[in-house]
Structure formats: C-alpha cells, structure tokens
Amino acid sequence: MKKYAILLMVSVFLFGMSVEAQQPQSPQRHDGQKKNINRGEKPQMSAAKRAGYLAVDLELTDAQRAKVQALFEKQDKIRTERQAEIKRLKEQEKAKFESERNAQESEMEKIIGAEKFQQLKAKQNQHHEKMKQRREMSPNDSTCDRKRGPRHGSRLK
Would you say 149 and 139 are in contact if contact means Cβ atoms under 8 Å apart? Predict the structure, then answer.
C-alpha cells in the first residue's frame, strides 16, 4: 500500500511538472503585468551615476571618479551622435526606397495598363494581408498546422 502511495505521489508530481513546462512563460513585472521587452524603453543611466557605482565598487579616489565620469560623458556624447546618424541614414534609405518603388510602379503601370495594374495591386494587398495573418498566428496556436525550420523544407504550407 505504501508503494502505491509513493507511486501515486510521484506520478502526480511528474504530471504537474509536465503541464507547467508546456505553458509558455512571458516575463512579468513585480506587479504581475507582462513586461514589454523593448530595447528603446530602457533609459541610460547618467554618467555621474555610473561613475558613482564604479567608484564604490572599485574604491576609486575622487580624482579617478572625476576622470571616469568625464570618460562616460564623452562616450555618451559619441553614442548619441552615432544614434542620430543611424536614424538619419535610415530615414534617407527609406525615402530612397520609396522613390524607387514609386518609379517602378509607374513604369509597370505604363507597361501593363491601368486596369491590370489595379488587379496586380489588389493581388499584392491580398497576399500582404494573408502574410500578416500568418505572422499573427503563433506556432503554439492549435489552429496553426504549418511546420517550421530547415528540416521541414523552405516553404510553408
């Protein structure tokens, strides 16, 4: 009888662990809400605060702390300039791409005519919506029957 009780307890424990392991876990904050993992949300600590932490950890003198703080401020300035440059380049590339796309569309319309071009745009929009729905459908969803990965081929169902 004791063996059955132990076997029952072990099986309940294993069943509980398997059920818990199958549930997807999303990061949560201390207040129980889901955490939004996004690199843009995290503010950068000030140079003075970072230098203060470093000074405490490494027991730096006031002169060393001031030099470290100056270095951190210099790095922050370089980082913000680099980020601004990257943002500017992205906007330029986006504008260039948009103008190229508009030129290609106008050329295509001249070649195939306005009516067939509208049919093409309708098909492209339909395909775009279909792909959007596929992206929204998670692989853990029971309605999703497609397989992913290199072993299952390069094309989706």
Answer: no
What letter would DSSP give residue 23?
S
pLDDT tens-place string over residues 106-151? 999 999 999 999 999 999 999 999 999 998 886 655 555 555 555 5
For residue range 17-50, list pLDDT tens digits in order.
776 666 555 555 565 555 555 555 567 788 889 9
Instruction: Return d(Cα 84, Cα 90) in angstroms, integer.
Output: 10
Q: Among all chains, which residue has been given the structure tokens 């949560």?
A: 28
How many beta carbons lie within 10 A of that of residue 51, not counting itself?
22
Tell me 139's DSSP state. Answer: T
Give the list of residues 6+ apart from residue 105 with CB closer than 8 angstroms, or none. Answer: 117
Determine contact, residues 51/65, Cβ cutoff 8 Å: yes
